Amino acid sequence: MDHHFVGIPGLTDVPRVAVVIDVMRAFTVAAWAFSRGVERIVLASTESEALALKESRPGWLALKDGAPAAGFDAVNSPGLLRSCDFAGRTLVQKTTAGTVGALAVANAPLVLCASFVVAGPTARFLRNKDSGPVTFVVTGDGGKADEDLACAEYIGQCMAGDDVEAAPYLHRARTSRAAADLAGGLRSGYHPDDVDLCLEIDRFSFAMGARQEESLTVLRPVAVPDIPPPARGSG
Description:
The protein is an alpha/beta fold. The protein is built from nine helices and ten strands. The protein has helices spanning 26-35, 47-56, 78-81, 98-104, 119-129, 146-158, 167-174, 177-183, 194-198, and strands spanning 3-7, 17-21, 40-43, 61-64, 74-75, 90-94, 110-114, 134-138, 206-213, 216-223. Strands 1-8-2-7-9-10-3-6-4-5 form a ten-stranded mixed beta sheet, sandwiched between helices. Helix 5 packs across helix 6 (146-158) and helix 6 packs antiparallel against helix 7. The longest helix has 13 residues, at 146-158. The radius of gyration is 17 Å and the shape is globular. The two termini are 26 Å apart.
């Protein structure tokens, strides 16, 4: 399956299939949120919009990058989120790069959001779907973030088959500038386990698909079978 990589500034056309990558930390956090019971994640373009959506919908929660702030219920940290109970809740997420990238391709026919924790299921979904060329949106550092590019390249390789060694790609992510910044405490809203949690390959068994629902861009978990069903007539 053909694929290519682009940063958010390089998006000029609406792709047929977009896979938006944010390893540290938006789409690792999103996967953890689903594992903690979140039903859906609404992607907001600004913090003000996130708070307005939360205030207008009883029971909704809001999450942002950086330090805790008034009105927000959580921060963009898998280590801080993993003990939360969000059963049945809607979470509004606004981050610096990941949500920006997803909203930039929100009109694409198929949008997936991914990180290492859902890399394998994302690749299997794309392989089974066979829906055309894939545009990987590398959200960090204007499209140059090595942790995001490594994840995108890993998923791209996995789309051709399952026998791909993850270690080299994880090493690139672990030695990236984003990982160093996190490990050094240079980003607010941080837990010491965040880097390790962002590098847990295939921690979760679902992919994450974004689509338009009543003028909102909504992310939901997508079940992906471990093994593709046999072709008709093969049995």
